[in-house]
Design a protein that fits this description.
340 residues, alpha/beta, TIM Barrel, Non-ribosomal Peptide Synthetase Peptidyl Carrier Protein, Chain A, two-stranded antiparallel sheet, 11 strands, 46% helix
């Protein structure tokens, strides 16, 4: 286990420098959640790396203003992986190139890596031939990896366990990961559920561990990370990193607890009094309002409130009081009323 805030290196020198991160706990891409203020919020809580939402390369190429707005990087967050999805190589590479050009114009800090989503199981994505559908089109997936590698940044892939019973599933998973690594992927995050499972059932951690053993230094993990013990399991299997998703939304301080379990130092910024937690929420609310507007600030703050206040006697009352509020200023007034 780590005993200091050392830099961890992922990737190699092919097509660009490796990506350096503070620790092996990373915020996974989450639709409608991993907006810039949320990413910075988790960076302050200890995330060594974050991801953008899954961004459509077609939307970028066609000049969609909402899509372009998703490319913002705020001061104090990072490193950030730009997570993209596309159905074919030309769309992916063209969209990525446009995204990097826009980023260079609007951001002081640039993306640390380019990610390809080959994991999303939702029909609105897979019907377009993107997301987890690429697991059934391996030649396209591998060519995408090679094409993106030419842009000079580390390439990170997010995928899933292969379909089928365990022996077949393991074989499919390892073959697909091997092709991605041979094509130049610097990191492959394997989610332990099949596309057919979507987000139901249990993630197969052992298959993720088998991939980590076969491709040392290349595999990170995702799936059923709800406690520090889950992080320790994956790291113990040889994964170079663990991506926190729904578990982090339910309990944002899972980053802090897991870092302590791994032996990393944790700053005192996120102390454990009820008033300090209210202060954290108020700071997040103001940042969300500034970047995303009143309505989205209310929606996202409600989503994080339960996890931030978890374990305090007044948390249930605070959740009920905020839960009926729809106005941003009323929400912050209600929150302040709980501060002593």
């Amino acid at each position: 286990m780590n005993t200091g805030d050392q830099k961890l290196k992922t990737g190699d020198q092919r097509g660009g420098a490796p990506l350096h991160v503070r620790n092996p706990l990373w915020l996974a891409p989450l639709a409608g959640v991993t907006l810039p203020p949320v990413r910075r919020f988790f960076s302050r809580l200890g995330a060594g790396l974050t991801h953008t939402e899954m961004i459509s390369c077609m939307g970028i190429t066609h000049g969609n203003r909402k899509t372009a707005g998703m490319l913002r990087i705020l001061e104090g967050e990072g490193p950030v992986v730009l997570q993209l999805f596309a159905p074919d190589v030309s769309s992916l590479v063209g969209g990525a190139g446009t995204a990097l050009r826009i980023s260079s114009e609007i951001n002081a800090v640039q993306f640390a890596a380019l990610g390809i989503n080959m994991a999303c199981p939702m029909p609105k994505v897979t019907k377009r031939g993107a997301g987890a559908a690429l697991m059934n089109a391996p030649d396209t997936a591998f060519e995408m990896t090679r094409g993106l590698k030419k842009l000079g940044l580390p390439v990170w892939i997010k995928t899933r366990r292969g379909e089928g019973e365990r022996p077949e599933s393991l074989s499919r998973t390892l073959r697909f990961v091997e092709g991605l690594v041979n094509a130049g992927a610097d990191n492959v995050c394997v989610h332990g559920r099949t596309p057919a499972q979507r987000y139901e059932g249990r993630a197969d951690k052992e298959i993720v561990g088998e991939a980590a053993a076969k491709f040392p230094g290349k595999i990170s993990a995702s799936g059923d990370v709800y406690a520090p013990e889950d992080v320790l399991d994956y790291i113990g299997m040889g994964c170079v990193g663990v991506m926190l998703a729904r578990g982090a939304v339910a309990n944002p301080f899972l980053f802090r607890k897991s870092l302590l379990a791994l032996g990393f130092p944790v700053s005192r910024e996120c102390d454990d009094t009820f008033n300090e937690r209210i202060g954290i929420l108020l700071k997040l609310s103001e940042e969300l309002k500034a970047e995303c507007g009143d309505r989205l600030a209310v929606v996202l703050l409600k989503r994080f409130l339960g996890g931030v206040l978890r374990g305090f006697p007044m948390s249930a009352e605070a959740r009920r009081a905020v839960g009926v509020v729809t106005d941003f200023y009323e929400m912050t007034r209600v929150l302040r009323s709980f501060a002593g």
